[in-house]
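re: that complex we talked abt at group meeting.

here r the seqs, copy pasted straight from the sheet so there may be weird spacing, ignore it
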Amino acid sequence: MPKVTRRTFVKTSAVAAGGTALARNYLFGPLDTVAAESPLALQPMVEDVVPTTCWIGKQDCGMLARRVDGRVIKFEGHPANPRNAGTLCPKGQAQIVALYDPNRVKWPLIRTNAKGATGEWRRASWDEALQLVADQVNEVRERDPKAVLWQKGRSKAKKFYDDAFVKSLGSAKMGHGAYCSDVGYRVLEYMIGTHAVLHPDFRYCDYMLSWGWNITGAGGNKTCWLQWPRHMVEAKERGLTITHIDPRLRSAGPFADDWLAIRPGTDLAMALALCHELVAQGFLDRPYLSTYTNAPYLVKPDGSVAKVTVGEGEEAEELALVWDEDAGAAVPFAEATSRALEGSYEIDGEVLRPAFEVFKEHIAQYSPEWAAPITDLPAEKIRQVATDFGEKAQIGSTLVVDGVEVPYRPVGIMAYHVAQQELGFPTLQAMTMVPMLVGAMGAAGGQLSDYSWKIHKNYAKFEKLTVDDPPYDYFLNKSKFFPINTGLPGVVAKVMQDPAKFGVEKLPEVAILHMVNPLNAFPSQPDFLASYGMFKFVAVISPWLSETADYFADVVLPAATIEKYEGPISVNNQYIDGSTLRIPPMDPLFESKGEIDIYMDLTEKMGLLYGEDGYLYQVNKALGLVDDKAEFGVDINSKPQVRDIFDNWARSEGIEEGVAYFEDPGKSVYIKGPVKPTKMYGYATDPPFGGAIHRFYGESLLDAQNQMKEKGAEAIYYQDYNALPTWRPPTMDSSPAEYDLYMISYKLIEHKQARTSFVPLLAELAPGARVDINPVTANRLGIESGDVVTVESHNAVTGETRSIALPAVMCEGIRPDVVGIPHHFGMWTHPVNEGQGSSPNELYFTGEGYTTNTADQSFHVKVRVRKGGEL
Amino acid sequence: MAKYGMVVDLERCQGCRACMEACKVENNTTESMFWMYVFRFEEGTYPDTKMSFLPRPCQHCDNAPCVKVCPVGARYKREDGIVLTDPDRCIGCRYCSLACPYGVNYFNYQKPQDAYYALGIDWEDPDVTSVTGGVVPPYKNPDHDLLYGEEQRRTAGGGHAKGVMEKCTFCVHRVENGMLPACVETCPTNALVFGDVSDPDTPISRYVRAREPWHLLEETGTEPSVMYVGGKPPTLALTEIERPKARV
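got the structure back, here u go
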C-alpha cells in the first residue's frame, strides 16, 4: 500500500468514514497493539507494591514500586516520606527505563585491547573477574595501601559500605565534592563549624538572596529538589521575597522578584559591598557578634590575635583576649561581661583593636560604588539589597517556636554551587558574614546551613593550619599549595603528570572507580586522559560502561541499580526527621550485584573480609553497631546476607520487626518526629551553636599565608589566605581581550550530573547540549538560533586554548557577556548518547587560576565564540 | 455524579516536567507523545526578561469541538466531565485533532513497538525479555487493556494502536479507582489540583472559590474543565524555549 502522507490521508479517510472500524483495517492493516502481543496480558496477573527509594537522583526519595507478576511497571512517590511527600521529579519517574536498559553492563567484563581507546571486552565469570581485581590490588596494597586509590562519584544512602571498604584496604579515597560545593563546606566548617553551605529557614524567612542558585533546576543543599521548591513556593505564598543574583534568569524561572544579573566571578565584590552597606547603615546585631563570634578578639598590628596563657604544662591553654568595657581591661573572652567590638586599646605598648574594628576598616573601601563597575550592577541596586536585608532582619526581635523563644531574623541566603569559583573561599566567607552581621545565623526565619549544629571535626582542625615541607602526598595535604584541602581529582591528575613540581614522591598505582566518570563529568578532561592511563590497573564498579571505563578499565564489575538493599536513608525534610531503606523491588537484573555484595566478595578474595579490622568489622563500625550496640553487629567471621546487615541495623534503632518494617509498604518510613527548635536554631541549642565560637576573623588563614610564604609558595597559592575576605580580580580576567565572554555551565532538572543523559525518556525531555547566548551578542557575531558555533576557552596562566562546537540558542535571560552550557552531555558509550553534543567540562581548566585555594574546581573561564564548527 | 476538573496553579509550577514524565510512564505513550505538555516561555528583552511555565493537558471541554466532529462517536464526553477516545471505534480521520484549538491530540502513525524502539533501546534483547516476558515496553501498564465507565469501553489509552488518535484521559483508569491522575500525583509543588468541582468541599472547589481561575482560549467557547490560576493567558509575545523531542 502506498505511503500515506498527512494530506492524502485526511482526504482518503474522509471518503472512507462510513466504514468505521473496517475503514481502519483498510487503511492500516489489522489492529496492531502491544496488548495483543503481550503473552502476560492473557494470564491472570498478580499485583503488589514494594516500598523502596529513588536511585537515580540526589536524595533517595521514598517510592512505591507497583509490580505486575514481579515486574516493576511504575515508581510513584511514597506518600509517607516527608522528603518527597508522594511526589517524584522527572528523573524519578523515568528511571524505570534505566532499570530495564539492555545497554547496562550485564556481566563482568575483562579488557582485551590496549587502554587509552574505546574498550574491547570479553565476558568473564564473577569469580575470574574478582580474582583478577583482588590479585592486582593486593600486590600494590601489601606494599603501600595508599598507592591504591578508591574513587566514587556520589555515594547513595549512608556510605557505610564505602567507608568500610576503604578502611579495610587502608587505601586513599576521592569523591565528587571538589566539583560540587566543598569549598563552601570548608568555609562553613571554618567559620561556623557546620558541615554545609547556606540555606534559609523557609518556614519563617521573608527575604532570600538566591545567590548563584538554580531554583528551578537543582534543589536544596541538604535536602532534595522535591521538598526544597515546595517549601519555597509555600514561603512565597506566605510572602517571601526573592532577589536572584545570577548571570542567568532561567535558574530562578518565574520566582525572582528581582534579578541582579551579576558578572561571573565577582560575587565576592558584591558580598563585600553588602557587608560595607550593612555596617554603614548600622544593621548590626551587636549582642550576637560580641557573644557568639570572635569579632571582639583583640588583634595585634601583625594580624595575630592577642592571647594569654593560662594553666601549666599539658593543661596550658592559650586564651584569646577581648577588651572588657566593664573591667576596662583586656581579659579572656569567656571572662568578659561587656566585650568591645570597636575602638583601639594600648596594651603593653602595642595598639590592639577588636577584630570587628579591623573588619570595619578593611571593608571601608568596598562601597557599592566600588562594587558597581566590578559586578556590573548599579550601586543603588546593591545598596537597596543591603537595606532590604537589614530592615527585614528585624534585628532585636524574637519568635516563640514550639514553646522556645529564639531570635527572629527572617532573612537568609541560599548559596551552594556558587562556591565553585576561583575566589570561592573568600566569596563564601563574605557571603556568610552578611547574615552574621544582622544576627541571622541560626535564628528563626534566618540563616541555616546544616539542620543541626553538630560541630564538624574540621572546625577544631582549622584553628591551626599545618604547612609541612615536602614530600607531600599526592593530594598535596598539609602542603604549601593547599593548607586547607578538599582533595581535587583534577589536582591529583596534575600531580601524576608532574610529581616533581609539587614535591610528591609516591603516586597512586591502581584505582578502583565506583560509579564515577572523571573523563566526562569532571574538568579537566585532558588531565584525566593523561593521568588515568598511568594506573597500571583500573577496576570499575558501575551499572553502565562509563567513558572512563571505556578508555581505562581493565575490569568492569556490573553493579545493580535500584535492585538491592541500601541505606539507611534519611527522610529529613528540614522539619521532620526519620529514616528509611532502599528495598530491592526486583532481583538484580542480568548478572549485576548490589555493591555491598560486590565489596564482600572482593574483600573475601583479597583475604580482608573476616576478623578484626576486616570488612565486616568495619561495616559494624561504620554503621555504629559497636560499643553499646555491639550486640547488633554482624558476625565478623561469617559472610552475612546483605538483608541481615540491615535487619541488625533496624533492630539497633529500636525497630523490633527489623528490616521487615521497611519491607512493609504500609510502614517502611520510620519517623522519629519533628525537628525540635532546640536542634534547628543555633541560638537554642545547648550550648548555643554547638559550642563553637564563630570565626568572623580568620587568624589561622593569615597564619597559613605566612607559613606558605616561608616555604616558598607562589602568590597564586597564598594570596587568598587572608584573615578577612579580600577582593582581587579572578585570574581568568587576564585572558586576552578577544576572549570577551564568560562561560558558565549549569544543571537541568531533567538530568542528574553525568548519569542520566543516556536514559531514553530523559534524553527525550532534554535532548542535548546547547550554547545559550544573548541575542545582542549573537547579532554582533553573526549568529542565528540553531547555528553551530565554536566556543574556545583560554587559560590565562598557561595560554592553552580548548574548543568545542555546539548549536547556539538565543536566550534573553542571560548576560550579553556570558554563554551558558548544560553539563550533562558529551558521553559516547551508550547508543542514546548519539548526537547529544559536547560537555563544557571539555573547556574548563584545572590548576593555577582555575582552582580555589582549597583545591576545589572553578567553573568559570573566559571564552570566545565564533560561527561555524564541526559538531 | 462527580464532575471532574483540574486547576493549574501557575504561581506554583516549577516547569520541571515531572508531570509529562509521570504521564508518559503511567500511560506508556510512545516516543514524542506527551499527553501532558509543559511549555517554558521567555518574554521581554534583557535585562527586562520574564519567564513563565504553562502545563497543558487536554482541557476536557464541556463544549468539546473534538466530540462534535467525530464521525463515529469514538471521541465522547462522559457525564463526569472526562473526554475520552474509544480506540476500537476510532477510524483515524483526525477531525478531532483539526477541531481542537489546544493541540492535545496525538495520532499514532507507527506501530507502538516501533515507536518505543526509536528511543534507542532494543526491548527484544533476550536478557531483557527473560525478565519481562517480552512485554513492550517492560513497564507496560495492564490497566489500559481494561474497560471503563458505564459504556465499558477500552478508553484508558488503549494499546496505542497504529491509526488511532489518543490524548490525555485524566487517567480515567486511576480516577475510577479513587486515585489522582499521574501528573497530579507526582507534582512536586502541588501546582496541579484535581477533583470533583460539583462538591463544594473538595480542595479543588475551595481553590476555585479562593482564586480567580481563567481558561485557555476562553474566547473559543470550549468551556474547559481545566482552569488556571495565577499567571496570565499566553500571548504571541512569548517565545517557547527548551522544547523536548515532542510533537506539540
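couple things i noticed - DSSP finds eight helices and ten strands in chain B. Chain B has one domain: 4-241.
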